[in-house]
Specification:
With 470 residues, this protein is of the alpha+beta class. It has a domain of 222 residues: Chloramphenicol Acetyltransferase, CATH 3.30.559.30. Helices cover 39% and strands 22% of the residues. The protein contains 13 helices and 15 strands. A hairpin with a 2-residue loop joins strand 14 and strand 15.
């Protein structure tokens, strides 16, 4: 019998598919800037074929990028199967900016690429190589559906192409043969067994209660409390703001960068974390931005969804390992230090709360019984407007990395927009810089660059106060 293979999507991964519609595009992305001279051919053109060869070599450690979606019969649950018609040239695309190729043009191009949904009949990713950028640079715009990657593993394919030294050698690609997809009967049987696991596990726990009832009772109490705390936090409606309009299909992208040494000065002076600095800076800039739009920010209940990775350091598998925490942001607080202190207290409380475990519990139960439970939970949260913005922060390497000898100068990440969410903020720390990526609805935020300026100004205010009080 021929060997066959498939991978089942978790309830969380399947939710990112279900939430997508004509206006909500659930892909994550990043824009990376590289120095161009090391990758020019003898005629002075960017050697795109060498880059494609590097991508092909990296695919050997990223099998998900050669897989496409299928469905389990009867259950209609999504799975990954190998794509027998995989075409690297379709996914790795080459374009150029018209001279002079400035950052404003690159941001516009990025917004246009982000406005296009990925083709569900093919592996759900694209990589755009963009020539002709100011400063003798080129860009890589990497884009992948959120159902296959999270904020950390999403950079996996790009990361596998990088080296810590400028060695331009292209590794030879390994041989790849697509595996056949299994028949529908096998997938149905596997799904029935998968969903039967939770009752069996509860039965084993009940049997253990005969010998140790107190421990089990405490475990049940903790799980129940975690579920209740998470449900309560996830159903509290927030204030309606211009950032929470019904979005359209078109996108804007902007960015800014702050020095990590300066972040360190703020952390050392005020006894907080890097994420506290990020959230306090964002809260100050968003508060000022909304105030110019006529929002009463002093009394506004404004909340950020803050994804927290649960991925182990040695976990290189695709898929999502993340939980979402809901953090109230003091956008009406005008004192930067007081705002930072409030954010620090909020995040400390959330880290000690049961929210994280409650989210994991809901996902596990829905994954093992009815994946639609998690999907409906997410849809309810979107309709209820339980958060106003997503702010996610991913740590990266603090030394230069190279693509075939070309140094990466900067990288700006992107988080997708949800229903009634016109702004998403993602950050990536790399080589001494904290890189902010601002993703917005085209019509709702024509003044997105004003927010980027506001982030710079709020960060400078915090830095100045840290220096004055040290």
């Amino acid at each position: 019998m021929a060997y066959s293979h498939y991978d089942r999507l978790s309830a969380l991964d399947a939710t990112f598919l279900a939430l997508e519609d004509a206006n909500v595009h659930m892909h994550v992305a990043a824009v990376a800037l590289f120095e161009a001279p090391p990758l020019r051919d003898t005629e002075g053109h960017l050697d795109v074929e060498r880059i494609r060869a590097s991508v092909e070599a990296a695919l050997g450690e990223s099998p998900r990028f050669r897989q496409k979606l299928d469905r389990i019969p009867l259950f209609d649950h999504p799975v990954w199967v190998d794509d027998p018609r995989f075409n690297l040239a379709y996914h790795v695309r080459h374009t150029a900016l018209p001279a002079p190729g400035d950052f404003r043009q690159l941001k516009r191009l990025t917004g246009r690429i982000l406005s296009q949904k990925l083709d569900r009949g093919k592996p759900l990713w694209e990589m755009w190589i963009v020539e002709g950028i100011e400063g003798d640079r080129f860009a890589v715009i990497a884009k992948a559906h959120h159902c296959m990657v999270d904020g950390i593993s999403g950079l996996g394919l790009l990361a596998r192409m990088m080296r810590l030294d400028p060695d331009p050698t292209v590794e030879p690609p390994g041989r790849w043969m697509p595996r056949a997809a299994p028949g529908g009967a096998r997938m149905v049987a596997d799904e029935i067994w998968h969903r039967a696991w939770l009752p069996a596990a509860l039965g084993r726990e009940a049997m253990r209660s005969i010998t140790n009832p107190l421990d089990v009772a405490w475990s049940v109490w903790e799980r129940t409390a975690a579920f209740g705390e998470t449900l309560s936090a996830s159903l509290k409606a927030t204030v309606s703001t211009p950032l929470n309009e019904h979005i359209g299909p078109y996108r804007r992208f902007d960015w800014t960068r702050h020095d990590l040494d300066s972040v360190g000065e703020i952390r050392a002076r005020f006894g907080c974390t890097l994420n506290d600095v990020v959230l306090a800076t964002a809260a100050g800039a968003i508060g000022r931005f909304l105030a110019t739009r006529g929002v009463d920010v002093e009394e506004a209940a404004f909340r950020a969804q803050v994804p927290v990775s649960t991925r182990a350091s040695d976990d290189r598998q695709a898929g999502n390992r993340v939980v979402m925490l809901m953090a109230d942001l003091p956008i009406g607080e005008t004192d930067p230090v007081a705002r930072l202190d409030q954010v620090h207290n909020t995040m400390t409380r959330l880290k000690r709360s049961r929210q994280r475990f409650g989210v994991q519990l809901i996902e596990e139960v829905s994954d093992r019984t009815a994946p639609a439970l998690w999907i409906n939970f997410a849809r309810l949260a979107a309709r209820q407007r339980v958060f106003n913005v997503v702010i996610t922060n991913v740590p990266g390497p603090q030394r230069p990395v190279y693509l075939l000898g070309a140094r990466m100068d900067a990288i700006y990440p992107l988080v997708p927009l949800a229903q009634q969410q016109a702004l998403g903020i993602a950050l990536f720390s790399y080589d001494g810089g904290l890189h902010w990526g601002l993703h917005a609805d085209w019509d709702a935020m024509p003044d997105l660059h004003d927010l980027a300026i506001g982030l710079d100004e709020e960060f400078e205010r915090l830095l100045k106060l840290a220096g004055n009080e040290s």
